[in-house]
Automatic annotation (TrEMBL):
Belongs to the FAD-binding oxidoreductase/transferase type 4 family. Keywords: FAD, Flavoprotein. It comes from the Bacteria. This is FAD-binding oxidoreductase. Residues 49-232 form the FAD-binding PCMH-type domain. Gene3D superfamilies: 3.30.465.10, 3.30.70.2190, 3.30.70.2740, Uridine Diphospho-n-acetylenolpyruvylglucosamine Reductase, domain 2, Vanillyl-alcohol Oxidase, Chain A, domain 4.
Length: 495
């Protein structure tokens, strides 16, 4: 720390003076102060949190970001930082406080794709690059970045890694963590960790990149990453199937796994209630089956082979399942446009539920074998709690991650329903816990769920998390109130 920065932390300079200094360091466009400019950064996507901030910091590179963090570190509580990517969090992971004491840090100007190597099958990208832009760049180089989520047009690489995003292709490629070879990051003291290594094997101490991935911006700010690419598929086949139960959906998954597990790229479950909302509330969303079904599966197969056999595999498995009654009806996409239309029926579930009224989201996971038990038992628990509630689970059956969402009963009061959100979440999570699951599968903990951490991750596990937080961010500068309860996230809590 320079003498100038040290003086800032001990002088009576105001918060406004700190922001003036940050604006000087970050240059034109580097700091937003006008309330009209900062307002979009003060509410989360779901509308659960509404805060305020005096400034949004927008560095144009890692060195500028490090300078800004050093200045904020010198100012103590007057300059706590909330890192923000595309602001698509479902759990308030980038929510800013109501008292205006926090500064928002946006990496939107750090949006360069630094390198793509089709031989190494890697790409080096800055944190502000959207996931869709990274996918497009990989495709232009003849490669595949397989991470795919509904918000990929807005979500940025930094946020995707900070939350260890999962998505549709986890069943085949894993979560974001499995695709990260190296990261560059700025720690809470402003020091820069240069870990942009393209190595598959690097057994040299603690894997700091893995500590940062999934830390939700509480341990450091990811500024760039080396991502692992894959060959682009030469064949893709997609089918939508109607089934009579979650057990039948799981049976179909097992049939495809027995036939060729390497071909499964996505395996998605949808409830009949959720599909009905999509068809009723989303323009141009049309169910292509003869009759509605109680439950649905969307399966996507892909391979790099060029022998044309993937369609045969799909038809063989579905044909046998139709003959035995495991599948009630099915349609196979005949073109890219039809594939996209089938995927639209899955991707628009969250938006349809939002349009249907108040909804409570439960991003949970259980062992794959217990997904049918989760859907049945949690449905029964929620119906007992709120008769008439619309139960609309959907998600990634292939990896055990179900978004067990509830929509207010028709005609019910939205605010009264949402006021019971924690009661509903706890009812679902009681079932999840009995099935050896997790209360957060891919959305993280954010600001919404830290209260669950002591009960679910208490003892040695939570104590270790607190010690890591205290070691890397002893002043609690980064993303306060996320993951760990704030009162235990401050200096001295981990001692």
């Amino acid at each position: 720390m320079t003498s100038e920065e040290g003086a800032l932390s001990h002088s009576p300079r105001t918060r406004a003076a700190l922001i003036d200094r940050l604006a000087e360091r970050l240059g034109p466009g580097g700091v937003l102060r006008d309330p009209a400019d900062t307002a979009p950064f003060c509410s989360d996507w779901r509308g659960l949190y509404h805060g305020r901030t005096d400034a949004v910091l927008r560095p144009n590179g890692t060195e500028q970001l490090a300078e800004a963090v050093r200045l904020c570190a010198g100012a103590g509580d007057a300059a706590r930082i909330v890192p923000m990517g595309g602001n698509t969090s479902m759990v308030g992971g980038a929510a800013v406080g109501e008292d205006g004491s926090e500064l928002v840090l946006s990496l939107s100007r750090m949006n360069r794709i630094r390198a793509i190597d089709p031989v190494d099958m890697t790409m080096t990208v800055e944190a502000g690059v959207t996931l869709k832009a990274a996918q497009d760049a990989a495709e232009a180089a003849g490669c595949l970045l397989p991470l795919s989520i509904s918000s990929e047009g807005s979500a940025t690489i930094g946020g995707v890694l900070a939350t260890n995003a999962g998505g549709n292709n986890t069943v085949r490629y894993g979560n974001a963590r499995e695709l990260v070879l190296g990261v560059e990051a700025v720690f809470a003291d402003g020091s820069v960790f240069d870990g942009l290594r393209r190595l598959r094997k690097d057994n040299t101490g603690y894997a700091l990149r893995q500590i940062l991935v999934g830390s939700e911006g509480t341990l450091g700010i990811i500024t760039a990453a080396v991502l692992q690419l894959h060959p682009r598929p030469n064949q893709i086949e997609v089918a939508l199937c109607g089934v009579d139960s979650p057990e039948a959906a799981l049976d179909l998954f097992q049939r495809f796994r027995r036939a060729d597990p390497s071909a499964i790229q996505a395996f998605e479950y949808m409830s009949g209630t959720g599909m009905a909302l999509v068809n009723a509330l989303i323009p141009d969303a049309t169910l292509p089956l003869a009759e509605p079904a109680p439950h649905y599966v969307l399966v996507e197969l892909a391979t790099v082979r060029q022998d044309g056999t993937l369609r045969d595999l799909l038809e063989a498995v579905l044909g046998e399942a139709l003959e035995t009654g495991a599948v009630l009806d099915a349609v196979i996409a005949e073109s890219r446009a039809q594939r996209l239309n089938l995927w639209k029926l899955r991707e628009e579930h969250a938006e349809a539920q939002k349009r249907a009224g108040g909804n409570v989201k439960n991003d949970v996971s259980v062992p794959v074998s217990r997904v049918p038990d989760l859907i049945r038992r949690a449905s029964e628990a929620c119906e007992r709690l709120i008769p008439g509630v619309r139960i609309a689970p959907f998600g990634h059956l292939g990896d055990g991650n179900i978004h067990f969402n509830l929509v207010q009963p028709e005609g019910a009061d939205r605010d009264a329903f949402l006021a019971r959100d924690h009661e509903i979440m706890d009812a679902v999570c009681a079932v999840v816990r009995a099935l050896d699951g997790s209360f957060s599968a891919e959305h993280g903990v954010g600001k919404l769920k830290p209260y669950m951490m002591p009960d679910w991750r208490g003892g040695a596990e939570l104590a270790a998390m607190r010690r890591v937080k205290h070691a890397l961010d002893p002043a609690g500068l980064l993303n306060p109130g996320k993951i760990l309860p704030e009162t235990e996230d401050r200096p001295g809590a981990a001692s």
